[in-house]
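Justification of computing resources. Each target in the renewal requires a structure prediction run like the one illustrated here; the chain below, 184 residues long, is used simply to show the kind of job we budget for.
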Amino acid sequence: MKNVTDSFVSLGHWPSAGSFGFNTDILATNPINLSVVLGVLIFFGKGVLTDLLDNRKQRILNTIRNSEELRRGAIEQLERARARLQKVEMEADEYRMNGYSEIEREKVNLINATSYSLEQLENYKNETLRFEQQRAINQVRQQVFQQALQGALGTLNSCLNSELHFRTISANIGILGAMKEITD
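Resulting C-alpha coordinates:
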Protein backbone atom coordinates (compact mmCIF):
# COMPACT_ATOMS: atom_id res chain seq x y z
CA MET A 1 0.00 0.00 0.00
CA LYS A 2 2.91 2.27 0.60
CA ASN A 3 3.93 1.99 -3.02
CA VAL A 4 0.55 3.17 -4.23
CA THR A 5 0.53 6.27 -2.05
CA ASP A 6 4.13 7.02 -2.97
CA SER A 7 3.25 6.99 -6.63
CA PHE A 8 0.44 9.56 -6.08
CA VAL A 9 2.68 11.72 -4.00
CA SER A 10 5.38 11.66 -6.62
CA LEU A 11 2.84 12.66 -9.30
CA GLY A 12 1.86 15.63 -7.24
CA HIS A 13 5.30 17.17 -7.51
CA TRP A 14 5.48 17.58 -11.26
CA PRO A 15 6.90 20.75 -12.51
CA SER A 16 4.35 23.28 -13.90
CA ALA A 17 6.49 24.50 -16.76
CA GLY A 18 3.82 24.80 -19.40
CA SER A 19 3.23 21.20 -20.04
CA PHE A 20 -0.04 19.47 -19.84
CA GLY A 21 -0.52 17.23 -16.86
CA PHE A 22 -2.72 16.21 -13.99
CA ASN A 23 -2.98 18.14 -10.82
CA THR A 24 -3.70 15.68 -8.08
CA ASP A 25 -4.10 18.25 -5.35
CA ILE A 26 -7.69 17.60 -4.41
CA LEU A 27 -8.20 20.83 -2.51
CA ALA A 28 -6.99 22.95 -5.40
CA THR A 29 -8.67 21.13 -8.26
CA ASN A 30 -12.24 20.62 -6.88
CA PRO A 31 -13.36 24.27 -6.89
CA ILE A 32 -11.94 24.75 -10.39
CA ASN A 33 -13.57 21.59 -11.71
CA LEU A 34 -16.86 22.44 -10.07
CA SER A 35 -16.85 25.95 -11.50
CA VAL A 36 -16.07 24.60 -15.00
CA VAL A 37 -18.82 21.98 -14.76
CA LEU A 38 -21.29 24.51 -13.41
CA GLY A 39 -20.36 26.99 -16.12
CA VAL A 40 -20.89 24.38 -18.86
CA LEU A 41 -24.16 23.25 -17.29
CA ILE A 42 -25.41 26.81 -16.97
CA PHE A 43 -24.38 27.72 -20.50
CA PHE A 44 -25.80 24.64 -22.24
CA GLY A 45 -28.48 23.66 -19.75
CA LYS A 46 -29.91 27.11 -19.21
CA GLY A 47 -32.43 26.77 -22.05
CA VAL A 48 -33.39 23.23 -21.12
CA LEU A 49 -33.72 24.10 -17.47
CA THR A 50 -35.71 27.23 -18.30
CA ASP A 51 -38.01 25.21 -20.58
CA LEU A 52 -38.48 22.54 -17.93
CA LEU A 53 -39.24 25.15 -15.29
CA ASP A 54 -41.60 27.03 -17.64
CA ASN A 55 -43.42 23.79 -18.52
CA ARG A 56 -43.67 22.89 -14.86
CA LYS A 57 -44.89 26.40 -14.05
CA GLN A 58 -47.54 26.17 -16.82
CA ARG A 59 -48.71 22.75 -15.61
CA ILE A 60 -48.97 24.06 -12.06
CA LEU A 61 -50.85 27.17 -13.23
CA ASN A 62 -53.17 25.04 -15.40
CA THR A 63 -53.77 22.71 -12.49
CA ILE A 64 -54.53 25.66 -10.22
CA ARG A 65 -56.84 27.18 -12.87
CA ASN A 66 -58.63 23.84 -13.37
CA SER A 67 -58.90 23.41 -9.62
CA GLU A 68 -60.37 26.91 -9.28
CA GLU A 69 -62.88 26.21 -12.08
CA LEU A 70 -63.80 22.88 -10.48
CA ARG A 71 -64.11 24.62 -7.12
CA ARG A 72 -66.35 27.33 -8.57
CA GLY A 73 -68.45 24.65 -10.32
CA ALA A 74 -68.68 22.65 -7.11
CA ILE A 75 -69.68 25.79 -5.17
CA GLU A 76 -72.35 26.61 -7.78
CA GLN A 77 -73.66 23.04 -7.65
CA LEU A 78 -73.63 23.17 -3.87
CA GLU A 79 -75.57 26.46 -3.88
CA ARG A 80 -78.08 25.06 -6.39
CA ALA A 81 -78.42 21.92 -4.31
CA ARG A 82 -78.92 24.00 -1.14
CA ALA A 83 -81.53 26.14 -2.88
CA ARG A 84 -83.27 23.04 -4.22
CA LEU A 85 -83.13 21.43 -0.78
CA GLN A 86 -84.59 24.54 0.83
CA LYS A 87 -87.33 24.65 -1.79
CA VAL A 88 -88.12 20.97 -1.31
CA GLU A 89 -88.15 21.39 2.47
CA MET A 90 -90.54 24.33 2.14
CA GLU A 91 -92.78 22.32 -0.20
CA ALA A 92 -92.63 19.36 2.18
CA ASP A 93 -93.60 21.61 5.09
CA GLU A 94 -96.40 23.08 3.00
CA TYR A 95 -97.63 19.63 1.96
CA ARG A 96 -97.37 18.45 5.55
CA MET A 97 -99.33 21.43 6.85
CA ASN A 98 -101.85 21.17 4.01
CA GLY A 99 -102.06 17.45 4.61
CA TYR A 100 -102.66 17.91 8.32
CA SER A 101 -105.24 20.62 7.74
CA GLU A 102 -106.85 18.52 4.98
CA ILE A 103 -106.94 15.51 7.31
CA GLU A 104 -108.48 17.65 10.06
CA ARG A 105 -110.99 19.11 7.59
CA GLU A 106 -111.90 15.62 6.31
CA LYS A 107 -112.18 14.39 9.88
CA VAL A 108 -114.56 17.23 10.79
CA ASN A 109 -116.54 16.66 7.58
CA LEU A 110 -116.76 12.94 8.30
CA ILE A 111 -117.87 13.59 11.88
CA ASN A 112 -120.46 16.09 10.67
CA ALA A 113 -121.70 13.76 7.94
CA THR A 114 -121.91 10.85 10.38
CA SER A 115 -123.71 13.03 12.92
CA TYR A 116 -126.15 14.21 10.26
CA SER A 117 -126.72 10.61 9.10
CA LEU A 118 -127.31 9.47 12.68
CA GLU A 119 -129.71 12.36 13.21
CA GLN A 120 -131.61 11.45 10.04
CA LEU A 121 -131.71 7.79 11.07
CA GLU A 122 -133.04 8.83 14.49
CA ASN A 123 -135.69 10.98 12.80
CA TYR A 124 -136.65 8.14 10.44
CA LYS A 125 -136.81 5.76 13.40
CA ASN A 126 -139.03 8.18 15.34
CA GLU A 127 -141.26 8.74 12.31
CA THR A 128 -141.48 5.01 11.75
CA LEU A 129 -142.36 4.45 15.43
CA ARG A 130 -145.03 7.18 15.31
CA PHE A 131 -146.40 5.75 12.07
CA GLU A 132 -146.50 2.23 13.50
CA GLN A 133 -148.07 3.51 16.73
CA GLN A 134 -150.67 5.45 14.75
CA ARG A 135 -151.36 2.43 12.58
CA ALA A 136 -151.67 0.19 15.64
CA ILE A 137 -153.97 2.73 17.31
CA ASN A 138 -156.05 2.99 14.13
CA GLN A 139 -156.28 -0.79 13.88
CA VAL A 140 -157.32 -1.01 17.52
CA ARG A 141 -159.86 1.78 16.98
CA GLN A 142 -161.19 0.10 13.90
CA GLN A 143 -161.51 -3.22 15.70
CA VAL A 144 -163.14 -1.53 18.73
CA PHE A 145 -165.45 0.40 16.41
CA GLN A 146 -166.36 -2.74 14.52
CA GLN A 147 -167.00 -4.64 17.74
CA ALA A 148 -169.02 -1.73 19.13
CA LEU A 149 -170.93 -1.43 15.87
CA GLN A 150 -171.62 -5.14 15.81
CA GLY A 151 -172.68 -5.01 19.45
CA ALA A 152 -174.90 -1.97 18.79
CA LEU A 153 -176.40 -3.56 15.71
CA GLY A 154 -176.99 -6.73 17.66
CA THR A 155 -178.63 -4.76 20.47
CA LEU A 156 -180.69 -2.70 18.03
CA ASN A 157 -181.76 -5.71 16.05
CA SER A 158 -182.80 -7.49 19.20
CA CYS A 159 -184.51 -4.41 20.71
CA LEU A 160 -186.01 -2.77 17.66
CA ASN A 161 -189.05 -3.80 15.86
CA SER A 162 -189.96 -2.44 12.48
CA GLU A 163 -192.09 0.44 13.77
CA LEU A 164 -189.40 1.66 16.13
CA HIS A 165 -186.96 1.25 13.32
CA PHE A 166 -189.11 3.36 11.00
CA ARG A 167 -189.48 6.15 13.61
CA THR A 168 -185.72 6.29 14.28
CA ILE A 169 -185.03 6.61 10.55
CA SER A 170 -187.65 9.33 10.19
CA ALA A 171 -186.20 11.25 13.17
CA ASN A 172 -182.72 11.05 11.75
CA ILE A 173 -183.94 12.23 8.33
CA GLY A 174 -185.64 15.16 10.03
CA ILE A 175 -182.44 16.09 11.90
CA LEU A 176 -180.46 15.92 8.69
CA GLY A 177 -183.00 18.06 6.86
CA ALA A 178 -182.87 20.69 9.64
CA MET A 179 -179.08 20.74 9.43
CA LYS A 180 -179.31 21.21 5.68
CA GLU A 181 -181.60 24.23 6.06
CA ILE A 182 -179.23 25.82 8.60
CA THR A 183 -176.21 25.45 6.32
CA ASP A 184 -178.02 26.84 3.29
